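The instructor's notes for this session suggest beginning with a concrete chain rather than abstract definitions. Hand out the sequence below and ask the class to guess, before any prediction is shown, which regions might be ordered.
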Amino acid sequence: MNYRDRLKNVREDKDMTQAEIGKLLNKSQQGYNHIEAGRAELKIDDLIKLCRFYNLSADYMIGLTNTPKSYK
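After discussion, reveal the predicted structure:
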């Protein structure tokens, strides 16, 4: 699974909208949509925020493992 699909799946599993996650990352809904759609890259600082917010490891969030682990 690529990281864009993982971002979308995790967001949807938490019943969050793109606008809500965009706000968390100081982006518009459209700005976050561009990340999920592959028109923009996810910045490392934003990845860290998402790991903390979802309490998931970066390895899981970027698709290096399929085993969800808590953020440490």
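Then share the key points. The chain has a mean pLDDT of 95. The two ends are 22 Å apart (CA to CA).
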